[in-house]
Amino acid sequence: ENNARNPLVHESPDEPFAEGVRALRTALEFSLPEASKVIMVSGLVEGVGKSFVSTNLAASFAMSGKKVLLVDMDLRRGHLLEKHHKGLCEKLRTENFTDEYIEKMFENFDVLASGKRVVNPGDLLGKERFGTFIDTFRSKYDLIILDTPPVFQCSDALLVEKYADYLICVLRHAAHSMESIQDALNMFDRSTETPL
User: Fold this and answer.
1) pLDDT in tens, 158-184
2) Closest-CA residue to 185 (of 56, 18, 23, 42)
3) Coil, helix or strand at residue 92
4) For the stretch 170-194, what's the b/e string if a residue is b when 16 or more beta carbons lie within 10 angstroms of its beta carbon?
């Protein structure tokens, strides 16, 4: 179970999963262009461990000394923090780009909840204010990790992708057909040129 307040990689750093996350972090450090600061984590469908990966990857980068912001991009039913927690929705509605609503988990690791649920997140994500939010926090953090809804669930991930420098698509072993994986890759390819 995912827990943004106590990520497994922080609470149990000797677990095999934690070592796998560190290996992913190292691979990204070698492959990310130097100016890259925004990583989007998505998946094909729910239940593949996307938020678990994004939370622990963010925590791992923070533990390595980078200042990291993890953002819950599921504006319909966010779950990284408690449901009553204000967050991204309120920031975008009011164009409030201060540190308000950002919660510190531990040193270098901050989380921004999704905030109050909205029926049509595209109304908020499709406007320039989301780009302003990203630009503002690029200057405040070494890394921003965007935990988006699955690409087959809604179009939110495709709206967000153009603001990311790098895209990680989380798959579960034997849970997807090659056709569905290719369909998702084609969707991302048509949306932007973000490295996958």
Assistant:
1) 788 888 888 888 766 555 556 666 666
2) 42
3) helix
4) bbeeeebeeeeeeebeebbeebbeb
CA gap 47, 142 in Å, rounded: 29
The number of residues in the chain equals 196
φ, ψ of residue 123 in degrees (nearest 5): -65, -30
Distance (Å, rounded) from C-alpha 55 to C-alpha 97? 22
Which residues does residue 103 pair with via DSSP β-bridges, in sequence order?
A: 111
Q: What is the DSSP string of 46-80?
A: TTSSHHHHHHHHHHHHHHTT--EEEEE--TTT--S
Question: What is the tens place of the pLDDT at every residue in 8-40?
Answer: 888 888 888 889 999 999 998 888 877 789 999
Question: Per the structure block, which two tokens stand in for 128?
Answer: 């320039």
Output the six-digit token pair for 21: 């996350």
Three-state SS string over 128-168 comes to: HHHHHHHHHHHCCCCEEEEECCCCCCCCHHHHHHCCCCEEE
On whether the CB atoms of residues 145 and 165 are closer than 8 A, the answer is no
